[in-house]
Amino acid sequence: MRHIAIVGSGPAGYYTAEAAVKKWGEDVRVDVFDRLPVPYGLIRTGVAPDHQSIKGVSRRYEKVALAGNVRFVGNVSAGDDVTVAELQQFYDAVIFATGAPEDRKLGMEGDDLANVYGSAAFVGWYNGHPHFANLDPDFSGRHAVVIGMGNVALDVARILSKTDEEFAGSDIVAHALDLLRGSRLETITILGRRGPQQIMMTPKELGELMHLRRASPHVDKSDLPPEGDDAILEPGLRKSVTLLRDFAAIPQSIHGETPISIEFDFFASPRAIHGVDGHVRSIEVERTTVEAGRAIGTGETYELPADLVVSCIGYRSSPVEGVPFDERAGRFANDEGRILPGLYCVGWAKRGPSGTIGTNRPDGYGVIDLVDADIGLGSRKRGREGFDELAEARRLDIVTFRDWQKIEEAEEAAAREGAPREKFVDIESMIAARRP
Ligand code: NAP
User: Nearest to residue 130, comparing CAs of 49, 38, 54, 57?
Assistant: First the structure.
């Protein structure tokens, strides 16, 4: 018998559990831990609430969770409620699938002003993550600045632009919908320190900006390189750049019809954020040129009005006591997924925050191949029996998958019309909802 602990119940965690069951069948016991009482990680609190088709992958994870030899152990934080050394006593392999839940910091003057947020916090807020439910952003100003040109920046710009009707069918949480309803934003500037050919936005997501009811995307023609230059780009990026060219061709009359303008500001690197009475008011930006793919400051600076700033410049993993961490890269120190004997990582915790949800599937299968090579037939460790004893002695309040199903039923029952669910946004309500 092999005893496997997976820490984190997001895509990386459940693809790894799936791979373990496929590889070893009945000869494995898998415990999937999560510090929250609810599963699915980024699917629940990262993927945008209006991207329900992507969230649908949770049905696949549910199948894995319901396999007889897989268990969800919610509301238990590895490193706090139970140490990594303790987990290693019980399990042949402990696999960190904890993602990258922290913001990469902007690290500049003014980044701590009120109404300046990192995307982990801001996305967590509109998705009902209990750690960020009380964020309370202020949408009474006219100008928002979103920093970064990746898909998260697109998610944020789109959520800031949508009308109530456009959120129909989404699971955006009520507190976010209420505040966004009163938004007075007129411009959303997306700042990219490099140019149109260096964006990280993918075409499907970028194309959605064309279909917003009250916002339209604006690209300055003069920022675009000659069309012939696109030929060398890989096909996805070429499509995205073609969309930027389409945005640049939108006639002024269309812009006049939409009250919100989404402005793409390329070759624009943020330098400092300025405020009045502790609240953000503007952002200082330096013009750049791109040389050999790198942004080089030109020394020319300008000030953009900003009543709200959301920085979408990437994420970092959270270190765990006793697990080697690569501070510079912001993830666990690992060699292709191996951290130390018996200790592994997978997904964003292993390779950093890039790729799609699906990228985690080969990652999960890969780490199980490593574990298989390392542990062979397994050992005589006690697995979940040993953990359960410790949990009882420590009075840990474990949330099971059956409990989660009750929480889910309660969320579905509370959904506003047309929405799939209304999420609980605090841990106490989640825990209370599992009781009949
Ligand atoms: P990302 O794709 O890596 O984009 C980060 C952006 O931030 C880049 O434009 C980067 O510019 C910029 N940036 C980094 N440091 C900066 C700084 N100090 N100042 C200014 N700009 C800075 O990251 P992400 O948007 O957080 O997305 C993470 C992953 O999740 C990606 O793989 C993404 O595709 C995926 N995702 C997918 C979806 C979807 O498929 N619908 C939705 C959301 C996220 P440089 O390129 O110049 O470094």
Answer: 38
pLDDT of residue 378: 75
Q: Could you tell me which residues come within 8 angstroms of residue 184 by beta carbon, excluding any fewer than 6 positions away?
A: 139, 140, 141, 142
To which residue do tokens 């050992």 refer? 379
Residue 257 pLDDT: 86
Answer whether 399 contacts ligand 1 (Cβ < 6 A): no
pLDDT given at position 139: 98
Angle ∠(58,60,66) on CA atoms, nearest 5: 100
Domains along the sequence of the chain with CATH: 2-101+317-433 (3.40.50.720), 102-315 (3.50.50.60)
Mean pLDDT, contiguous 10-residue spans, the chain (436 residues): 97 98 96 98 97 94 94 97 97 98 96 98 98 97 98 98 96 98 97 98 97 97 95 96 97 86 98 98 98 96 98 97 94 97 98 94 98 89 96 97 97 96 97 86
CB of 9 sitting under 6 A from ligand 1: no
Protein residue closest via CA to atom 29 of ligand 1: 354
Distance CA 348, CA 314 (A): 11
In one-letter notation, the amino acid at residue 428 is: E
d(CA 309, CA 330): 23
- Contact present, 225 and 259 (Cβ < 8 Å): no
Can you tell me the distance from the alpha carbon of 131 to that of 272, in angstroms, rounded to the nearest whole number? 27
Count Cβ atoms within 10 A of the Cβ of residue 154 and give its class: 0-12 exposed, 13-18 middle, 19 or more buried: buried
Cα–chain center distance at 73: 22
C-alpha of residue 216 to centroid of ligand 1, in Å: 21
Q: What's the gap between Cα 95 and its chain centre?
A: 20
Roughly what angle, to the nearest 10 degrees, separates helices 360-375 and 11-24?
Answer: 50
Tokens of 181: 């309803």
Distance 203 CA to ligand 1 centre (A): 14
Please count the CA atoms within 13 angstroms of the CA of 68 that sit on its side-chain side. 4
This prediction has a pTM of 0.97
Confirm if 40 and 81 have CB atoms less than 8 A apart: no
> Residue 158: CB within 6 Å of ligand 1?
no
DSSP 290: E
229: which residues sit within 8 A by CB, 6+ positions away? 197
